[in-house]
Structure formats: structure tokens, C-alpha cells
């Protein structure tokens, strides 16, 4: 299998963590987002959205969208499980993951910051937009896990929620958000970062890191 | 069960379709988004993101995020199934749904348009932003189902992909996008709109419609 990604993409980062938790070794193919390599025709044939990640299977099948890829991994390689077995608990974990993957990340990613630049907003105003989106979204996430058992987001093992949280906190820091306001999220992150699966997936440890 | 929603919210619209397909009758509670009712403290206690929809179960449990709610419905009431049984096919359906729910809808919703207004962009420029996000995203969606069997997005029965598509096409029209450029998507929409489950979920048929 090949993972098409980019070291700094937090959606690709999620899939790197999941692959590590499942102990899967894949070939990594980097597409430099700031150079627009994700819009090369050969890549668009794999991923019509022109986004990373794409997981390319050995038979050429291309799976897109990080959460869909992670659920596929979890369904085809069930151990260790990344979602609880109980439907209600699964729904809560998925809702937390989607609060990040739908309502934070896409509203502050490179594509949106480029759109803002086209409207004349870059530098401080773009940073303020991205920071505000992170603060709003992570404040809600903090409440979604306020009463769950720890140390991870939903109990004593890492799962889809932690996989989404750790890269998003990475983004929040990059946008100068004071993450100390999210103590429950930081507790989950600290538990995750004790695991090699999470440590080996960080942007600075990727071959294409700048 | 109570569905907390708003007639025009396309995320709530998705859940209305899913409830209709599952033949579940629920109480509808409207929160007027333009009046900010989703930020009432009582509602924030149910949904810390201050977004619709929320599905409130009879025991008071609150489920948030439309895709998580729909997967929960599908896991607890499997017929009619809203996702294929094969993991690879499920991954493709989920990827299509997430292409809409992560990468189109949140980048053109009321919250983002309000942020643009704060930066001095409303009227034509906000409309152009929203239209462009829809064109980019739906063009990719058109390709994701270019070679699938019809008439629905993924075969001969409606599912999660169609549930996300129909409300998004509604948004695209509201933002003056010429949807004739998406013939495969329109074919799926036409098949869906032959079903009462889809027709009864449209914004204009809701009690809170303006």
C-alpha cells in the first residue's frame, strides 16, 4: 500500500497514526501542497478532490478522506480497535472526530487560507481567522470529553478521537492558540504521545519534513 | 426522540432524510440559526458546538454531528441499510459523504459567511465564495461517482451518499451554481426525489419554514 500525503497535512497525519496503531508498514508518497503538487493530473486521477491523504491499495484502488480510510482500516484489521463496540459510544467518538474533521480543520486549512489571501487577507488576519476557528472548535471538544474516563479521549485506549485530536492540537499551536485552556484535551494528548504510534507520525519525523 | 434542527440547515436535512428512510417518527424542535438560538445555554448543554442537528434520545442522551447520528441509526436499525456491506464499498460511500460534509458544507455555511461579513465581505463576494466552494467540491463528487452503477450515487438503493448529496445540491442552487454541469449527481438526485423519504425532508416542507 502507498499513503499519498504531506508531512504537515493533519488529515494525512491522522492516517499515519492509524497505520502505526495497526502496525502496517506502507510506502509514503509526498505531494508538496504549497507547490500545488496535489493538482497534478496523475494525482487528481487518484483523488479528484486534489487533497491528501489517499491510500492506494496494491490493486490500484484509491481510498480518499481520512476518516473513511481509518474506518476501512478498522473494519478490515479489527485489532487494536479504534472505535468502541457499543453503538452509542461509537456515535460519541465519531461525533468528536467529526467536530474536528468537519468543523475545525477544513475551515482553517491551506485551501481556505488561500481563499482569504485572494480577498486581501493574509498575515495577521488569516492567522486570527485560523486561531479563532481552532479556539471555538476545541472549546466544544473539551466539553465533549469533560466527563469521559481518561486518560485518552474516551477511556483507557487510543482511538479515532485521539487520532483526530493530536494533529488538530498541532495545528492550534501553529496558529498561536494558547492550548492550556484545554486541560482535558492535553491530558489525552499526553497519553497518546507516550505511544510510538503517535510519536512516529508527527510532521517533524516524516521524510518530506522541511 | 427529538431532532433539534432548523429547516434550512443541510446537516439537519440529512438526518431528516435518514429518519424518514428508517420510518422513524420524531418530535422536531427548531432553533432559528439566524437569530442565534443555537447559542442558548440550554441548547449548548446538549450540543457544545452550538450547531444543529442534535438527536436527543428519550433518556436525554444527546447525539451530535449528522454523519455520526446517521451511522448510529444505521447500526441500531439496520433496515433499510444506508451503507453497503462490503468494507471497500463502505469506504467509497463514506468518502463521498465526507467530501460534502467536511470539505464543502462547513466552508460555505452560515458560520463562515458570518466570519466573512466581519472581514467586510458580504453580498456578492460572500456569494462568490460559497458558489466556488460548491463548484469545486461537487465537481470532485461528480467524478467520484462517474463510473458507479445508478441511478443512486452507489447503486440501486439510496444511502448515505445520496443523503448528503441532495441537501448540498439544494445549497448549491441557493448560491446560484449552475448544477447542470453535474449530470451524474442530478441523476442520483432525481432518483432520490421520487421517494417520499427525500421529498418530505426538504426545507420548504418543514413546520419552521419561512
Automatic annotation (TrEMBL), chains A, B:
GO terms for biological process: glutathione metabolic process; L-phenylalanine catabolic process. GO terms for cellular component: cytoplasm. One of its GO terms (molecular function) is maleylacetoacetate isomerase activity. The keyword Isomerase applies. Belongs to the GST superfamily. Zeta family. InterPro entries: Glutathione-S-Trfase_C-like, Glutathione-S-Trfase_C_sf, Glutathione_S-Trfase, Glutathione_S-Trfase_N, GST_Zeta, GST_Zeta_C, GST_Zeta_N, Thioredoxin-like_sf. Residues 86-210 form the GST C-terminal domain. It comes from Bosea lupini. Residues 1-81 form the GST N-terminal domain. Pfam families: GST_N_3 (PF13417). Keywords: Isomerase. This is Maleylacetoacetate isomerase.
Amino acid at each position: 500500500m502507498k499513503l499519498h500525503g504531506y508531512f504537515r497535512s493533519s488529515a494525512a497525519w491522522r492516517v499515519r497514526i492509524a497505520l502505526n496503531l495497526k502496525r502496517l508498514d506502507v510506502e509514503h508518497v509526498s505531494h508538496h501542497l504549497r507547490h500545488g503538487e496535489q493538482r497534478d493530473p496523475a494525482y487528481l486521477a487518484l483523488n479528484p478532490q486534489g487533497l491528501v491523504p489517499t491510500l492506494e491499495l496494491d490493486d490500484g484502488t484509491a481510498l480518499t478522506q481520512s476518516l473513511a480510510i481509518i474506518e476501512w482500516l478498522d473494519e478490515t484489521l479489527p485489532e487494536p480497535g479504534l472505535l468502541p463496540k457499543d453503538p452509542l459510544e461509537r456515535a460519541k467518538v465519531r461525533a468528536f472526530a467529526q467536530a474536528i474533521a468537519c468543523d475545525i480543520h477544513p475551515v482553517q486549512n491551506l485551501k481556505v487560507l488561500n481563499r482569504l489571501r485572494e480577498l486581501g487577507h493574509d498575515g495577521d488576519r488569516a492567522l486570527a481567522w485560523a486561531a479563532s476557528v481552532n479556539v471555538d472548535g476545541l472549546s466544544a471538544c473539551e466539553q465533549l470529553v469533560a466527563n469521559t474516563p481518561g486518560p485518552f479521549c474516551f477511556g483507557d485506549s487510543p482511538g479515532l478521537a485521539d487520532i483526530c485530536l493530536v494533529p488538530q492540537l498541532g495545528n492550534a499551536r501553529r496558529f498561536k492558540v494558547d492550548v492550556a485552556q484545554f486541560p482535558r484535551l492535553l491530558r489525552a494528548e499526553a497519553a497518546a504521545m507516550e505511544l510510538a504510534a503517535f510519536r512516529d507520525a508527527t510532521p517533524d519525523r516524516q521524510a518530506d519534513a522541511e
